[in-house]
Amino acid sequence: MPKVSVIIPIYNVAPHLKRCVDSLMNQTLDDMEFIFVEDCSTDDSPSVLEEALSAYPERRTYVKLIRHETNMGLTRSRNDGLSVATGDYIAHCDSDDWMDHAMYEKLYLKAVAEDADIAMCDFWFARDDGDELYYTMSPSGNHDVDVSRYISTLWTVAWNLIIRRSLYETHGLRSPEHICYTEDFYLTVRAVYYSSKLAKVDEPLYWYNQMNSASIMHHLTEKRRMEEKTSYLDTIAFFESEGVLDRYEREMGWRILKNKQTLVLQDRFDEFMAIWPRSHRYIWSVRRPFCDWKIRVLMLLVVCGLRWPVHLNNVRKHRA
């Protein structure tokens, strides 16, 4: 059985794919499984993948390739990869990113040494003007504290951690196929909640590519905001079904306020008020990076029924 299975969805990433494949094929961990899911790319990604893999014949027996006949989307690709994964731990990798050659060895050894269900690491934002280091949360050893910390972490992503496969199987963890934005939050928050122990390697081992202009992160639309709202509301319903929402209500309130703050700036006050009103009790406690102090004041005015000063502020801002 492989120690780690890495699932790599591929869709129109030809300029970035070889670097990703090279960083995967040169991993120092032995006995890995690589699952590439080609999601009906319209560019040269399939041929780039084949050429890149041809340089590593010793790894080919550990490579599985799934080809979609039609474009199914990121989350379906991840789920299809998961359905054939056999490793002790599951990892996700975006095909326009890359990682340190020792990333999976370090994460795996850390997870085994601490008998952890999840091991995570810090990462880099890779930008044209240089890399920026991002520190992920450090586990405290207290389950509720760690879940709360994770929810209140802005970058809750799947690709900087490995998760024990049995956690997926026992709890039916899957990426939500109706969501293609904040789908990582939906998946990883549940994994963190179900985990018995978290571990961390205090090193940045993954490069999150900010130079891909086709990335979803460069095209945040109203549809994406709605998907984010769905992810958060579904997670609130999940915690309610588990009978633990009171433990994480404040942090989920911050998430909801982050999602719906733009409605205040667009004079969509009724919509703002209707989305999980319990979040309003946490307006003054929410901080950056979710909301700054100006939007907190505007949200409080709306909640208190003082919409006209918010409207005037929006008009002045629009005219400027």
Task: Walk me through the structure.
The chain is α/β, with parallel strands linked by helices. It folds into 2 domains: 4-213, Spore Coat Polysaccharide Biosynthesis Protein SpsA, Chain A, CATH 3.90.550; 222-319, no CATH class. Helix content is 45%, strand content 18%. The chain contains 12 helices and 9 strands. The protein has helices spanning 14-25, 45-54, 74-84, 103-114, 143-151, 165-171, 183-194, 222-242, 245-265, 269-274, 293-303, 307-319, and strands at 4-10, 32-38, 63-67, 89-92, 98-99, 118-127, 130-134, 161-164, 198-209. Strands 1, 2, 3, 4, 5, 6, 7, 8 and 9 form a 9-stranded mixed beta sheet that branches. Helix 5 (143-151) packs antiparallel against helix 7, helix 5 packs parallel to helix 9 (245-265) and helix 7 runs parallel beside helix 8 (222-242). The longest helix has 21 residues, at 222-242. It is globular, with a radius of gyration of 21 Å.
Shape: globular
End-to-end gap: 61 Å
Arithmetic mean of pLDDT: 95
Question: Would you state the CATH class of the largest domain?
Answer: Alpha Beta
From the alpha-carbon coordinates, what is the Rg to the nearest angstrom?
A: 21 Å
Query: So, CATH architecture of the largest domain?
Result: Alpha-Beta Complex
Largest sheet, strands/sense/barrel: 9 strands, mixed
Helical stretch tally: 12
Q: Low-confidence segments, ≥5 residues, pLDDT <50?
A: none
CATH homologous group name of the largest domain? Spore Coat Polysaccharide Biosynthesis Protein SpsA, Chain A
The CATH topology name of the largest domain reads Spore Coat Polysaccharide Biosynthesis Protein SpsA, Chain A
Order of helices and strands: EHEHEHEEHEEHEHHEHHHHH
